[in-house]
Each structure stands twice: as C-alpha cells, then as structure tokens.
Amino acid sequence: MRRPRIIILFAIILLLGVAAVYLLSRGGGEQAQPDQTPVGAVPSDVVFVAIAAQDIARGARIPDDGIVMSRMPANMVVETMISGTDEEGIRTRVIGTVARQDIGRGVPVTEAMISESGGDLLAGGSDASLAIPPGYTAISIPLDRLSGVAFALRDGDVVDVLLSLLMVDVDPDFQSLLPNYSTVLNAPGGTEEFPSPSITGAVGQMEGGTGAQIPLGKVIEEEETTTLFHVIPSGEQRPRAVTQRLVDSAQVLHIGTFALEGENLAPVVQGDQAQAGQQPQDGTQVVAATITPPDIITLIVTPQDALALNWAIKVGADLTLTLRAPNDTEPTETISVTLQYLIENYDVTVPSRLPYTLEPALQKLIDPVLRNDRVVGPQQ
After folding, report:
1. Are the CB atoms for 212 and 136 separated by under 8 Å?
2. Does 72 fall in a domain?
3. Would residue 137 count as lying in a domain?
C-alpha cells in the first residue's frame, strides 16, 4: 500500500516541476517593458483642459489665476474645449484673452467663450435677436391703450396692423391742393368755357396779363335763364379717409421698452402689503408699486413690411393692432374701407336734409372719454 502512495506523490512533484520550468522559461524570453511616460507628463490618453478658476464677467480679460489646468481622458474632451498635452501652451493661449460671455467658476473654457480683442464682443449679439427667424426683421411702432387691444397683447402674440389715411387731390406738377388759382390772359370777357367773372377784391394783375387773378372753379349753366356761372369752391378740399390692413400675421417680439444692460428694475410690492394704509410687520416703509403703461411695441415682420411700417410712422398715419388666435397665420383677403364702401355694403343711410337740426351745431364726432382716462396718475 505504501508503494502506490509514493508513486502518486512523485507524480505530483514532477508536474509542479514541469510547470515551474515553463513559467521561468516564458518569463526569461520576454523582457520587461520600462515605463515610457516621463516624470511630470501625462499618458497619451489623457490631456489638459482649461477650466475657469473663478467667475469671469463678460468683457473682462482673463487673469493669470483665472485658469487652472485639469487632466481629463482624451475620449471625454469635446472638440470646442481648449485642450492639449502642452500645459504651458494652453495656459498661454487663454491668459489675457477677453471673455465674450459670463464664464462661471469650474466651467471648461471653449473657443467661443474667448476673443483676442474686445471688438469681437458684438458677435454675441442680443437675446432678442435669437427670436427673429432668418429672413425677418424687427421694428418698433407706437402703442397706446386703444391701438394696442387695451394692453391685452403679450410677447409671442400674433397681430395684424391696420392703416388709416386721409387723402386729397393735388396738382401732379405742383403737388399742391386742388383747385389751382389761375389768371385770365385773354380779353376781360374770358372765354365761353371759363368766362372771367366780376369778383370783388380780385388779387392784382399778373405781369403781361389783362385779367384779374381768380380761383379756377367750374362753369355751370342755370336751366331757366341759360346763364353761365363761374363757380369757385367755398373752402379748402376735404380729405377722404381710407383704412386697410397693412401687415398680416406679425409676431410680437416685446411689449414696451427693452431693459438696458445693468438697469435696476423697481421692486414690486405683492400681497396685502401693497394695499394702501398697510405696513409690513417688520416696520419697513412700503411704497406702492408704479405701473407705467407701455407706449411702444416691437414686431417681427418681413423687410418689406418693415419699410411700409416705417413710412407709415414717418407720415403720421394712424396704426391700429388687432389680435389673432394662436398659430393663426392663414392669409385672408381684405378690401379697403372708405365712405363709399360703408354706404354700399353696410346699409348706411345718407342723412336727409330736414327742417330741423341739433343745437349746438355738431361739426365733428365726439370722442368718448373713458373713466380711467380721467384718473391722474400712471394710467392716465
């Protein structure tokens, strides 16, 4: 029984010896590779990234202590980050540049965040410009309570712009109001078409002419006597009103004046403390919040519509905004409205000449005075 045990033990020792010889021979055939990374350098799969060491304001130059180098795996670095294996080169590249925007502490610095000179700061632009689609432009027009849908408009609304004008007839050459004034240059009796009437107080004589300077009117014939009369107007020409839609489906960019950079907004008192005669429990003085109604509105329109609106503002035309439903941008056809259009399409009756009338005489329509318009204050 001892002989088999000895044989088994001998076999185990033999196997361990063979395994040891194999491992030694393999280790001796392969030379250990020394560490190729120099002291102080980073592995090839790790790079330096420029990180803001402090809050940097827009327009400020980045100081020497404003940037720290952080090691980051190369596969996690975004292309726009300022990174590389040369730590000092990256630092030199960032230090002394101008921040195009506010850079928070701990934020990786990118190419778009810095500029070599302050003149490139305009590249950031305004927040308002980001809301304007390509091919459109923004223009501001006056606004009041009546033209602005009683101040119901808000940023992002869709509106139409109505235009109202007064039009008169003018001489195409002189661009002056008709009728013109003329001088009779023939015999004192004039012609059959325009006989020279006897006008008291005729204005002088035109050099080289024989007649008096008289207004150019029209010749009418009395039916009973067939007498020709030269009729001149009794007053100036009356303008004729017309209204039409000028801009269709314009988007409201902003109501009121944009806040200037660094402008401090007045605090708004909220809750029961804003009521008159009540003071907060801490004893501080409460000042009632002042709300100033907007007097200007900025619209997003096509460049051609912007030209039309600018012309209307410069000539003093009346502009009125109408509010449309959200996402309602379907174009609709409109017809210019005049006195003739109203009479023909809305059954407006032309007043008859009656043997009685109102007293005092009504020379113009009376504009209603709204109750809030009588209040003296911010909403006046």
Report:
1. no
2. yes
3. no
Check whether 362 has a pLDDT greater than 50. yes
**By three-state DSSP, how is residue 124 classified?**
helix
198-203 long-range contacts (CB < 8 A, ≥24 apart) are none
How large is the average pLDDT for residues 30-57?
A: 68
How far apart (Å, rounded) are the C-alpha atoms in residues 273 and 52? 43
**Quick check: helix, strand or coil at residue 206?**
coil
> 133: which 2 tokens?
């689609």
Residue 75, domain member (yes or no): yes
pLDDT of 209: 41
Number of domain units in the chain: 1
Whether pLDDT at 221 is above 80: no
**3-state SS class at 342:** helix
Average pLDDT over residues 38-56: 76
CA dist list (Å): 150 to 107, 261, 321? 46, 29, 10
Mean pLDDT score across all residues of the chain: 77
Q: In this structure, how many other beta carbons lie within 10 angstroms of the beta carbon of residue 298?
A: 20
pLDDT, position 141: 96
CA separation for the pair 380, 372 (Å, rounded):
7
DSSP classification of residue 116: S
Q: Rounded to the nearest 5 degrees, what angle is found at the Cα of 157, between the Cα atoms of 155 and 161?
A: 110
> Does residue 214 fall inside a structural domain?
no
Residue-number span of the structural domain to which 74 is assigned: 46-123
| Predicted confidence band of residue 377 (pLDDT cuts 50, 70, 90) | very low
Burial 186-195, CB ≥16 within 10 A → b, else e:
eeeebeeebe
Classify residue 279 by burial, with Cβ atoms within 10 Å: 0-12, 13-18, 19+: exposed
CATH code of the domain containing 73: 3.90.1210.10
